Amino acid sequence: MENKKESILCNFRGICMKPTCDGCNIKAWLEENRKSLIKLVSEKDNILNETVVNKSQLLDQFIVECVKCDKRKMDSKIMTLDDIFGIHSTFYYYGREHLLINLLPYIKHGVDNNELITVSLSKDIYDQLMELLDFHGISRSGVKFFPVKNMVIANNKNGLEGVRQLLSALLEEVESNKYKGARVIGQPSFAIGETSKEDFLELEKVLTEAIIGLNASGLCLYDAFDYIHNREFIDEDIINHSLETHSHLLYSNSLFKIN
């Protein structure tokens, strides 16, 4: 399977799937496989089925090639998702199924590691996530919604120091409830819809530095489907900044340092 993936990837390496690219057949391939993934999830009735996960990971490779478009390279791999404090990472998803297949294991690692999980997601995705946590027996007692507006307001008022103060307050709750730390998960398209593109970009500039040295990690979930097809929220500017403002990439259920 790995050889097949690598062979396909090599054939298209360096080609970008942006809407402005003419004659790019990867876009059609992605859409075909997104629909295939949806069908597979329905057939298996289990979003974490091994066959489903393998199909999802094949999507990972092409999405990453499109988004980074040779701008940055994946470097060293973090062997576990259990020790990620101080890391601000990014993930690019192509369709809701692809998002949830990758998000559930990431959250489970945090839950099993006794971390508080905060999520800032659109209501429909948040509701489905909660249902899937129950379905797969993943405790959601330590999973809570965290309003992204609060972080944007903190940054607008006091910049980096304001964001660190907000995270420190969150970690006080973590300590009082005897959690080891916090995983802060956000969906940029939701954040932009709740605030503005400009406010979101200003926040992203400081998040990596704000998290350093804290018992917390950050994960931003970028909608690659929107980027490739619509650009309603995730446009070229947002994608370029995402590559500049995150230190790691979530890819095939592992974190890789990006340079």
Automatic annotation (TrEMBL):
One Pfam family from the record: SpoOE-like
Domain of life of the organism encoding this protein: Bacteria
Any Gene Ontology biological process: regulation of sporulation
Domain MEDS span(s) in chain numbering: 88-246
InterPro entries tied to this protein: HLH_DNA-bd_sf (IPR036638), MEDS_domain (IPR025847), Spo0E-like (IPR018540), Spo0E-like_sf (IPR037208)
SUPFAM superfamilies named among the record's database cross-references: BAS1536-like
Protein name: Spo0E family sporulation regulatory protein-aspartic acid phosphatase
Species annotation: Metabacillus litoralis
